[in-house]
Please model this.
Amino acid sequence: LHDALPIYSVLLATLAVDGPTRTETCIQAWEYATGTQLRCFRGGGVMSHTLLATPDYVYAANPAKSAIQIWQWAAEPIHMKIPMAEKVVSLASTLDGVFVLAGTDSGNVMTWEAANGRYWGSLACHFRAINVIRVLADNSFVITGGDDGVIRVWALGSFLIEPGAQKPPAIATWTSHTLPITDIFVQGTAVTARVFSASQDSTVKVWDLQASTLLCNIHLPAPACTLVCDALEAWLYCGASEGSIFRVSLLGSDQYLSPHDVRCEPSNTFAGHRKAISGIGISPDGNTLVSASEDATIRVWDAASGMTTRIISLSAPITALLLVNRSALDRQPVSAAPVTVFDRATIAKPHSHFSLSNPNFKLPGNKTDAELLEQYLSSAEENVETEAQLAAAADALKEDRSGSGGPRSRGRSTGSSPRTS
Model:
């Protein structure tokens, strides 16, 4: 319980730093109360929702390549780099960091178990890119928002089904937004949680998760890029694409009795940033607001008055921001939970037969272990693109090693589905 309490929060931001001969990307941790830099994780350029902090590690999806990079909190060099089959545009995890979910630009969510790298499969959640993924604090539900303007609610178990098994449908689908979803904020458990969704249509909508109903429409002067609420959900703060932060009271007497329209008043605007807000966070006591912008500044605000109390200027645009527990930065590597290179997301076979995390696995009739299969899949990666094709190639290799005839051709596999073991 002590570790779970946000005793002393710090700022985690990603930015581009102009090096002597090139632009270098990194993730920096700052103490926002004093303006002191605490960490600098090199090589970690990310987009808005591809930065993830777990109790033991920092994850970031590389925007230039299909890869996820991992750092330990106490060590600045990259701990691990994991290639992905698709471009990752959003990241999330369960509260304990056991399961990692990656949203892709094709609308799929891929799920891994961090400790052993086990791949749980890919679930088609949206027709277009998944801009944001949120997991409830009790690990009951996963909420996804896409470029198609749709929000869907899933049971976490929907992503933890054997590859090849039938995937369950979404529990709820909300389609009230008319343009792409830019952010989702949710806190609490499944019983009490309200979901706040922002869209490029300049609205924020409040949903009752338990009843799956729309509670409130909030109309903003400009589209919101990022959202945050205080712990009591008395105030909602919306970072806008034109640099303003809008504050909306959620304490109206009839606010949640029926779909209710609220318009943000000009007096409830925090002005100071000159470009789009890329991230926003609030202290656990609700007194301090922290914002980052593409204008290369971090601003610390008094949440009650809207006055700026500190400005931290950086050398290049900031692309993402998180507030994290201060104790995470003091966590030593020896006490961190293990993390393993993720299995390839293109393998569709049940894990008990083709899990590459099992080094003792032997192909029937041959002394070759899983390393040969891994080498084969790596060489075929450029020509084999889909899960069914790659699984068929693995089947062909298995038959080659167990058959008595001559060697089978290792050309491109075209079309058979993976067999059920």
